[in-house]
Write a structure and sequence with these properties.
Length: about 350
């Protein structure tokens, strides 16, 4: 017997449940409710006092979280299982997913702005998505860099301990800091066009005592005036967001020292648009493309018409065309398993 096909109503009602529960997690993160529950279970009154929120609100949220299966409930006390605490609060834990509710809520809050952008054809700046989007995205990526960046570096052919590294489109700087950890004597320069990201990145470097080796610069990655000679020039999950990806790749080529390596990490999507073959990852990318990455890349150019307007699903063939147009001779995809990203080595 085959399963009856899921109707659109079933599908959207299921999605609605997931979406509303995701927003309640974002609420709990924003208010510090999971942090307040981490060490000890609580009643509504205790949570309200610990987190500084109204008791009636605390009770409703606790009951909802227990019903959703995010919290335990016994004898009037609500508790946060260790596994959930790590996934929501420990940004370098391999199971961390605490950035997802934050970026989702911040994206939903941008709907009016995105509606207007679709009508006018104008773009939206990355910064307009706000601190929750920026920090949420950065924290999920931080998990990847903290846990896997060393393995990725080992897979790059002929990469000998680089003395100078550039990290283009570095965001809050988590990849730059992971690069500094992987190469203990390297000097790392992060470049990003979003002022708040650069400020946050500088703060993270200072908090980790790495400000002497890791610097962050407010610059356009496509600026032909970018100067320097780097043994490793990287761009992590940023080229598809850029209005001028060819200009940025050309600048990266110019920053590379004679024997230097250029690494671009970007979305691993299918080879072509094929709705029947698209997996959940590609559906997720398209969702973010519609609501964030495309408007941002349109906004990252002097006029909307001048933007490459790539979208999140930057196919390998599209990226290769960009790299060749920027003056690279070849693009190799490294043999690195990653569910979300593809690793391009450019020569
Ligand atoms: C998806 S975020 C990724 C950030 C970071 N690489 C990470 O992995 O967390 C894309 C970043 O690209 C930056 N960006 C977009 N266009 C840029 C440009 N023209 N020059 C420099 N940075 C740019 C944005 O400000 C944003 O920080």
């Amino acid at each position: 017997m085959t399963d009856a096909p899921q109707t659109l109503r079933d599908r959207l009602e299921g999605a609605g449940l997931q979406a509303i529960e995701l927003l309640t997690v974002a609420l709990g993160l924003r208010l510090g409710l999971y942090v307040a529950l981490r060490d000890e279970p609580a009643t509504a009154l205790t949570l309200a006092r610990r987190a500084g929120i109204g008791e009636r609100y605390a009770r409703e949220w606790l009951e909802q979280q227990a019903v959703a299966g995010f919290l335990t409930h016994a004898d009037g006390l609500f508790g946060l299982p260790d596994e959930h605490a790590r996934a929501l609060l420990d940004a370098e834990d391999p199971t961390f997913v605490g950035g997802t509710p934050r970026t989702s809520a911040a994206t939903a809050a941008m709907l009016d702005v995105v509606v207007e952008a679709y009508r006018s054809g104008a773009g939206v700046s990355f910064g307009a998505y706000g601190p929750e989007f920026r920090a949420g995205l950065g924290s999920n990526n931080r998990r990847e860099y903290a846990n896997h960046l060393g393995t990725w570096m080992a897979a790059i052919p002929d990469l000998r301990s680089p003395a100078r590294i550039a990290d283009v489109g570095c965001g809050e700087g988590w990849s730059s800091l992971a690069l500094a950890a992987a190469f203990a004597t390297a000097a790392v320069d992060g470049i990003d066009l979003d002022e708040s990201s650069v400020f946050a990145a500088r703060r993270h470097a200072a908090e980790r005592g790495l400000a002497d080796r890791v610097s962050f610069h407010l610059r356009d990655a496509a600026d032909p005036g970018l100067a320097g000679r780097y043994d490793l020039v990287c761009a992590f999950e940023t080229i598809h967001d850029m209005g001028d990806p060819i200009g940025a790749l050309r600048a990266m080529r110019g920053l590379r020292a004679a024997d230097g390596t250029v690494l671009v990490v970007d979305e691993r999507c299918g080879d072509r648009f094929d709705p029947a073959a698209a997996d959940e990852r590609e559906r997720y990318m398209y969702g973010y493309s519609v609501l964030h990455c495309l408007p941002v890349s349109v906004g990252d150019a002097p006029t909307p018409e001048q933007s490459a307007a790539t979208g999140t699903c930057m196919r390998a063939s599209v990226f290769t065309d960009y790299a060749l147009a920027a003056g690279f001779e070849s693009v190799d995809v490294l043999d690195i398993e990653h569910e979300q990203w593809r690793f391009y080595c450019l020569t």
